[in-house]
Amino acid sequence: MGETLDSQNVPDGALGENITTFGVDLHALPTGTLMFIGDSIIELTGLRNPCAQINTFRDGLLSAFRSETPSGETIRRAGIMAIVINGGIIRTGDDIRIEIPDGNSEPLRPV
Questions:
Q1: C-alpha distances in angstroms, 89 versus 24, 30, 59?
Q2: pLDDT score of 9
Q3: Structure pTM?
């Protein structure tokens, strides 16, 4: 398991996050998933690829964002990338509605 992040050492927004969610397994959603948040619609496009710049907050912090499966596949935990389909106001506490694309879907891949 990776190291637990200490929010006192990494200020909100410092890692490039625009929206922070709770209770949604973002990494399990396929490419093309739509998220309806407030007045906005965003489309998931890929996984963020954590880089060594994360270590500027704390030496070795990058290891908290990457791990490996028993077969050696890299697991990334640095969030997801998305494009805005419909901009709008998002407020703290807004519900998130997820719409998975029809048909065959591909897992999120690093972008």
A1: 20, 25, 36
A2: 66
A3: 0.76
